[in-house]
């Protein structure tokens, strides 16, 4: 079976968008109604945060794949790590200010979400690479 599957960064981008939509729904569905009361602002915050994260990820991933001599999975994981770090230190607060939401995105340990995201990315990328290999046969 010879099926052409998209490269993992494209698949990962779709996964991030779907996760962001699920996160938005989770927030506005909470019983206290805090996020439902500001659903348009929260939608803008979610969209901006997702866009910032994906732009950093995709640009850095492309630069690393083009100029760095490293496996694509590692470059993607590093790109995501940088995107998450930028989000928890700069972009998240910026998106909150633009959207007009009161969101405390300050992390005491910003490297923890970075390392977790990179590990999850590597696992997903390896699973996807295995799927692509299996479908080539």
From TrEMBL:
Keywords: Membrane, Transmembrane, Transmembrane helix. It comes from the Bacteria. The chain crosses the membrane at residues 38-60, 72-90, 110-131. The keyword Transmembrane applies. This is Uncharacterized protein. It comes from Sphingomicrobium sediminis.
């Amino acid at each position: 079976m010879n099926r052409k599957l998209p490269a993992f960064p494209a698949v990962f981008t779709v996964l991030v968008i779907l996760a962001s939509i699920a996160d938005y729904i989770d927030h506005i569905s909470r019983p206290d109604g805090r996020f439902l009361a500001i659903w348009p602002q929260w939608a803008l915050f979610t969209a901006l945060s997702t866009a910032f994260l994906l732009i950093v990820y995709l640009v850095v991933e492309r630069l690393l794949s083009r100029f760095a001599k490293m496996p694509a999975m590692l470059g993607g994981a590093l790109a995501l790590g940088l995107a998450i770090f930028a989000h928890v230190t700069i972009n998240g607060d910026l998106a909150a200010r633009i959207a007009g939401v009161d969101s405390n995105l300050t992390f005491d340990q910003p490297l923890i979400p970075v390392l977790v995201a990179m590990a999850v990315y590597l696992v997903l990328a390896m699973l996807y690479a295995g799927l692509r290999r299996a479908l080539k046969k």
